[in-house]
Design a protein that fits this description.
Blueprint lengths: L3 H9 L14 H13 L8 H12 L4 H4 L2 H8 L3
Helix pairs in contact: 2-3
């Protein structure tokens, strides 16, 4: 299996969205990554600006068609 090393890392530590092959970035994976970015306590985020930078980095990894889903636009509207 081509993605076996990634699967092993995912089970051990999790993956950053950048590490997931583009063709495997489903709507569900992207939405979960954004939810994590909005709610994470894993990184020392000093301000709202830091959280925006983190979420922007996550969203820059989304396939374009996923950026247009209701989840993404609905959740972002709460922060604008």
């Amino acid at each position: 299996m081509e993605h076996q090393p990634l699967l092993e890392r995912l089970l051990q530590n999790g993956l950053l969205i950048e590490e997931i092959p583009f063709e495997l970035r489903t709507e569900s994976i992207c939405c979960n990554a954004l939810k994590w970015g909005l709610n994470t306590q894993d990184y020392p985020l000093e301000s709202c600006k830091d959280r925006v930078v983190l979420c922007t980095r996550i969203m820059n990894c989304f396939p374009p068609e996923i950026l247009l889903t209701g989840f993404v636009t609905g959740n972002l509207s709460k922060f604008i």
